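Example (one chain per record):
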Amino acid sequence: MGDDNCMARRRLDFSPDGKLLVAPSGAARQSTKADVKTRIACTYIFNVDINRDSKKIGNPVAVLPATAATSLVRFCPKLFTHRQPPANSRSTQDSDIIPMEVDEDAENEPVMMTSDTPKRHKLLLDGIPYRMIFAVATQKQVLFYDTDMDRPFALIDQIHATDLSDLAWSPDGRMLVVSSLDGFCTFVEFAEDELGQVYAPPVRVIPASVVLPAATAEPSTSRG
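Predicted structure:
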């Protein structure tokens, strides 16, 4: 973890479905074209699905680089449908994924590989029919991510005079409250469907053959 973040509070968060853990205050090593490795601030994403191999849970499945040390993470409580790619875009191939290597001699610290052009990464959770949105805060910025992209889709900057201290989503997922050490709060409100369409799980139809018959009331008897 990075030690250049002066914030005393460092908040990590689980996804609404409990399958992801996002941890701020990371410090990863990035390999450049000249094979020079530098340390940059980042946020780690771990897949903590109970059905996943326990030996792999300790290694992050994704690293989100940042221009400054991150300190706070908050998931939106709502689930959303996947993004629809533009009609003229080609489908994502495995070659589009920016690989992440692990240096066995560096305490399993993840190494991020750079790419000339930004790429859409493979879904963090294969087979799930929804995407999740989370906010990551530095001392001065709030970045918005979702599980369909490897880069923030929105950024808010310089909204307070001093450092940001906490984040909180409203239950309906349409408002993020940002607090600061200056004693004020900022309310970031999203219009309906601005973040995407809320995911509605499919309705399961129970076959008539397994439907239990309705219980019949026993006739009441009166004692004379």
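Caption: The chain has a mean pLDDT of 77.
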